[in-house]
Amino acid sequence: MTNIRGVRAILLEIVVVALCALPIPVAFAPLAPADDESPFDLNSIDLGLGPTTSISAADGRTTLTLPIPDGTRATVFSANAVVPAGVWRGWLDVSVGDALLARIDVPEGSTTVPVTVPLDSAVPQPPDNLIVLTIKSTMLPLDRYCFLFPLDAQLILRDQVVSYLGPPALPTTIADFLPPVLEQFTVFISDQPTEEQSEAAISLAGAIVQHYGAQPVRIVLRPDRELSSAPPDGPFDRSAAIRANSDGNTELIYPEEPAPPRLYITGTGPALLDQVRMVTSNLAALAISTNASAGTSTPRPILTADSMTLTDLGVRGPSSTGITQVTVTVPLDQTRLGRAARSVRVHLIGSYTPLTTDVGGSLSVSVGGRAIATWPAETDGVLDRWIDVPASVLGRVTNLDVAFRAGSDLGCGNGPTVSLGIDSSTVVTSSALGSPSPPGFESLPQSLLPQVPIALTEQNFPNTARAVAIVAGLQRMSTGPLAPELVSASDLVDGDASGILVAPDGNVPDSVELPLRTTEGSTLTFTDPHVEFEQAITLGSELRYGTLQVAYDQQSNRTLLVAMSANAPEELDRALGWLSADTQRWYALKGEVLFVAPGREPVTLTSPLADNPASATALDPGRVSVGKVLLASVVLLVVVVGGYLLLRRRRASA
Fold first, then answer.
1. Dihedral (C-alpha) 178, 181, 184, 185: value to the nearest 10 degrees?
2. pLDDT in tens, 605-642
3. Nearest alpha carbon to residue 267 among 214, 206, 199
4. Which of 70, 334, 512, 651 is the most buried (most CB within 10 A)?
5. Distances (CA, A) of 108 to 57, 114, 337, 568
6. Cα(604)–Cα(645) distance, rounded to whole angstroms?
7. Measuring CA to CA, how many Å separate 440 from each of 455, 514, 515, 550, 629?
8. Which of 254, 264, 289, 262 is nearest to 29 (CA)?
9. Within 13 Å and on the Cβ side, how many CA atoms surround 623?
10. What is the C-alpha separation between 200 and 204, in angstroms, rounded?
């Protein structure tokens, strides 16, 4: 028995020595996820494809780009196809390159057809690990011979979902930090941030939104004291912590459980912004380690000029072929112009099918179904025409529909085959002078470009969070990157540059002509300087509200977006939270004022100018009377809100 105990003691000592000789695991080493084949789905909105996809029914095609997260494989693409009226039967061909993945039959009399496409044989293409689906529609008309449904009839794909298998791989280098699909990005900064930390957080938020384009990435700002207690990120979440340090550096820090690492960005002054810019730049692909330090960088300037080609605007000249008539669309994006568009002209250059004099034809340009130019086609097929785009049809993005129609139509789709192409050398000219078209919220963000100065009336965490929410919302509407920079409130207000003023305390100088203003605590004034009209109402109690307002200064030709409140910073936060909750709400904003009062849903207030931009050029008594009716409605709303608050205060005091 003694010998056995001695042997046990010797063996135990050997085990202890062996364990001590093993390498100690690094606390922040990356941990691999469990090897499983767990299925998950991502819908088309998550993937940045939008809620629906439209395809020309008769003979159209489109492409869908599907990101494939590392460590996963796509198995099925599914959707429901809504068939337009007038279709006898047809089919959809879905392919990747030259490989046909599926043919979906559209039986006779169908209105909705389920679409299921197996993706197991589709190989993602490097370097971005994408699968590009090509979907071709072939629909035949009811009588099998004649196109009774409109040539522009669309087949709509809705409820689009991509199914995947496997756990998304965890990033092992800074180059892999950002996944192809991102649902939430959290930024941690000090709860008493310096100006440079605030600017870094605002810039990083905007850069992430721009990097993911149409994906509805949620941006969250949190104080770094919550970093240690924050739950680990999910597979499609990422976090970054911004901290002060004498040296600029970027490092991945891994948690102790299988979860994505957090990115720690440190530095001071310009070096901190250099690290932030690296995260979404092409330079990040070279950061194939867990630690990197970016050198001095200069943000890419936003292109602005009085004259730009479609190539300058990043637009490829469209072309199309059809029976008897054909339409192509030329998008004019003011954010690509880098400023608010005024006096827009387009020099259309291209070609169309030459026609004989006995056939003849015509060309036209329209916006939203409204024709702005029409002229007869020439026999040489050369398109060379200047088009004036009225201010009344301009939007943030204005789609010019250029149509070519042959003069003869034999019916039943038997007319001549015609083609139309717009060359990328087509020129767009605009002016920097005059009020934006369209005005108000629809002039954002283009009227703030090319730089976006931001002023906080107080340098603190809450104001930084408000600026982050605003820049993220504006960036969603811009095809190019914004360039935010923090400036002092006095420099912004007293200067002549457009910008953003965050003033939750309501401390907005009188020199800023706000459309909606409170005076003496209980008088609310709605002003439209474009038609020299003003109306005020005095309430029986002090009014509390939060607003976002677009103020245009005619003298300096600049736009200010002002985020402020009247004794209610929490209502301003509620307005920003409401906008952030649905990415489409920023796009949908119209008018000059977003108004939020306690216990009320957000509402927008619109001046006559927003309804008719031409009213900015002349005082129209008829238009002013319309403005009075509108302002009376606003006043009624304010009375209801004020009465509600007064009644609640009296009940509370009772």
1. 20
2. 886 554 554 433 332 323 333 333 334 444 444 433 44
3. 199
4. 334
5. 15, 14, 47, 60
6. 20
7. 20, 12, 10, 6, 19
8. 254
9. 19
10. 6
Phi-psi region of 338 (alpha: psi -120 to 50; beta: other; left: phi over 0): left
Digit-coded pLDDT (tens) for 313-358: 999 999 988 778 889 999 999 999 999 988 999 999 999 999 877 7
Helix, strand, coil distribution of the chain in percent, nearest 5: 25, 35, 40
Structure tokens at 210: 């721009």
Query: Domains of the chain by range and CATH?
Result: 39-165 (2.60.120.260), 174-292 (3.30.379), 307-431 (2.60.120), 443-653 (no CATH)
With a pLDDT cut of 70, the percent of the chain lying above it is 82
Alpha carbon distances (Å) from 629 to 517, 537, 594? 19, 15, 19
- The mean pLDDT of the chain is 85
Instruction: Return the closest-CA partner of residue 537 out of 618, 636, 630, 616.
Output: 636
Cα(566)–Cα(460) distance, rounded to whole angstroms?
19
Give the position of tokens 């809705």: 158
Both tokens of 404, joined, read: 């070519």
Give the chain's end-to-end CA distance (angstroms, integer). 88
Q: Is the pLDDT of residue 12 over 50?
A: no
For residues 132 and 411, give the distance between their C-alpha atoms in angstroms, rounded to a whole number. Answer: 37
Within 10 A of 92 (CB to CB), how many other CB atoms are there? Answer: 23
Nearest to 467 by CA among 501, 444, 496: 501
Distances (CA, A) of 465 to 33, 191, 220: 33, 10, 8
Q: What is the pLDDT of residue 33?
A: 44
- DSSP characters for 514-526? -SEEEETTTEEEE
Q: What are phi and psi of 277, to 5 degrees?
A: -65, -30
Token pair of 244 as six digits: 């002060």
With CA atoms as reference, report the closest residue to 151 among 349, 393, 327: 327
Pairing of strands 184-189, 218-223: parallel
CA separation for the pair 524, 539 (Å, rounded): 8
Which candidate, 304, 301, 303, 242, places its Cα nearest to that of 273? 242
Contacts of 169 (CB under 8 A, 6+ apart): 33, 69, 70, 71, 72, 176
User: Cβ of 626: how many Cβ atoms within 10 Å?
Assistant: 15
Contact by Cβ (8 Å): 261, 253: yes
Place of tokens 């529609």: 137
Torsion 580-586-590-593 (CA) sign: positive
Radius of gyration of the chain, Cα coordinates, nearest whole angstrom:
30
* 530: phi then psi, degrees, rounded to nearest 5: -70, -30
